[in-house]
Amino acid sequence: MLNKERKDSFFNKNKKYFDFISNNLKNVYNEPKAFVRTYGCQQNVADSEKFKGMLQKMGYEIVSDPKEASFILFNTCAVREHAEDRVFGNVGALKSLKRRNPNMIIALCGCMMEQEHISNKIKMSFPFVDLVFGTHSMEDFPKLIYKVMQEKKRVFEHKNDERTICEHVPTFRDGKFKAFLPIMYGCDNFCSYCVVPYVRGREKSRECENIIEEARDIIESGYKEITLLGQNVNSYGKTLDNHVSFAQLLKKVDDIDGDYWIRFMTSHPKDAKKELINTMASGKHICNHLHLPVQSGSNRILKLMNRHYTKEQYLEIIYYAKEKLKDVSLTSDIIVGFPGETYDDFCETLELIKEVSFSSLYTFIYSKRVGTKAALMKDPISYQEKSQWFNELLKVQNDISKEYCKKFLNRKMRVLVEGKAVKDGNLTARSSENLIVDIKGNEDLIGKFVNVKIVEAKDWFLKGNLI
Ligand code: 5AD
Ligand code: SF4
Fold first, then answer.
1. Total-model pTM
2. Per-residue pLDDT for 448 more than 90?
3. Among 47, 181, 243, 408, fewest CB within 10 Å belongs to which?
């Protein structure tokens, strides 16, 4: 097939729906506008870029203010209860917008909507919501809007079969110089606290050729950073007929000519092997950063979490990374207060983070998720006590982050300028280690690589001068 034909294949397959919607819009609005709000992880951000791409093809202009929009989509997250509460609060607030514009379409999608109890709650309690669909129906988006417009009734789509991977879905990238590139979908790990395998379904990898083609396109369009995304990137390729490991894929992307950086997330420690570290070490474009979520430093808790590695196995790969990658930035996710965790278990987590010396951590208090194994476990520690442990963890990590930042004092670094801080008008840039570097300079530098000398190390960021 020709390249152009391939690129238009999704649009052509759904042409009937795209045409119907855009004609419908022309009859009602001069300038139809759509607003998309994303909750949760980068995978959701990447999915939203596809929703925006499809909405644009339908004739909508993408806007950043929901009040201007005649189509509103919330792409939701179910990982923690707090995220769900925020969605319910924000959906409630849409009622007044709908009252002002009864033609408006309000749609909810994503991980939270894949859960039947949530979808039912929306049906009963939020009658102004027109369309609800889960992650498995993502690529049916044009057909679902068509149904809402054509049949003029509420649509609740709940597919029992798994999402199939659709290639060449139109994409509206939020960033001008940083791009997300999903390489796989779903997760097979069933960590006992996590709802993701239930709401995103079984792990499926995209064909290697399609990923490389997209990466090439991104780089040729002038992007300076690509982040390869997946729930567990290290098990990439397992579902493909022609097996390609993640390290091999990384190498293939790294082989593309150009001046750009590659990041990837998320790695699972049980699947992160020396081959990955070796590929990072020999890469030309791969950032000096490894995000390797450990979750806990207690072997007892790791077992209850169904993580399939021990603290010792985790440390083995960490020490290998430290040996091969000079000053590598190591980051992690930690859950505090998993059911049955004792203060002694928690202290083992503190010991582990001191031993590894992470540059930063993403820390979470355990949140009970309906349908997961952990939701059935005894959880005797109060939220208040968990919060105290959590604060203790933050304090310990703060000192560790400070020490890590100090390593770079008086050094020369290459950074990618990302934007301008509102507070002081300085430019904010990011190093290969994912450290934020504050510099004085002209806005023209945004989206470009520059060299800086580090002159100050703050608690969690650096200050540099342009060289
Ligand atoms: N409670 C708290 N944190 C969670 N995470 C996933 N599920 C839960 C939960 N039920 C965290 C894990 C994961 C990150 C994306 O979110 O640390 O790595
Ligand atoms: Fe959730 Fe574990 Fe899968 Fe990560 S690897 S998405 S924590 S089940």
1. 0.95
2. yes
3. 243
**Residue 382 pLDDT > 50, yes or no?**
yes
> Would you say the CB of residue 236 lies under 6 angstroms from ligand 1?
no
For the Cβ of 40 lying below 6 angstroms from any atom of ligand 1, the answer is no
Structural domain ending residue among the three candidates 157, 176, 191: 157
Interval 58-77: pLDDT, tens: 999 999 999 999 999 999 99
Q: For residue 305, give the ligand nearest its CA.
A: 2
Taking CA atoms only, the protein residue closest to ligand 1 atom 9 is 367
How many angstroms separate the alpha carbon of residue 80 from the centre of ligand 1?
A: 7
User: Which ranges in 290-380 belong to alpha helices (H)?
Assistant: 299-304, 311-324, 343-356
Cα 232 to averaged position of ligand 2 atoms, centre (Å)? 7
| CATH at 42 | 3.40.50.12160
Residue 376 lies in a domain: no
Q: How far apart are the first and last CA of the chain?
A: 48
Q: How far apart are CA 123 and CA 386, in angstroms?
A: 35
Question: Under DSSP, is residue 257 helix (H, G, I), strand (E, B) or coil?
Answer: coil
Check: CB of residue 160 under 8 Å from CB of residue 225: no
| pLDDT at 316 exceeding the cut of 90 | yes
Query: Is 82 inside a domain boundary?
Result: yes
Report how far ligand 1's centroid is from the alpha carbon of 458 (Å): 28
Pocket test for ligand 1, best of 193, 332, 334, 387 (most atoms within 8 A of CB): 193
Distance CA 209, CA 214 (A): 9
Domain that holds residue 33: 4-157
As beta bridge partners, residue 363 has 334
Return the SS3 of 240. coil
Last residue of a domain, one of 157, 190, 215: 157
Provide the pLDDT confidence category of residue 28 given band limits of 50, 70 and 90: confident
Among 283, 278, 310, 277, smallest CA distance to 294 is for: 310
Residue 329 inside a domain? The answer is: no
In ligand 1, which atom is closest to the CA atom of 362? 17
Q: Is 144 in the pocket of ligand 2 (CB under 6 A)?
A: no
CA distance 259 to 281: 18
Candidate of 44, 79, 112 to mutate for ligand 1, largest count of ligand atoms within 8 Å of Cβ: 79
Judge if the beta carbon of residue 390 lies within 6 A of ligand 1: no
pLDDT in tens, 394-416: 999 999 999 999 999 999 999 99
Strand 225-229 vs strand 204-205: parallel, antiparallel, or unpaired?
A: unpaired
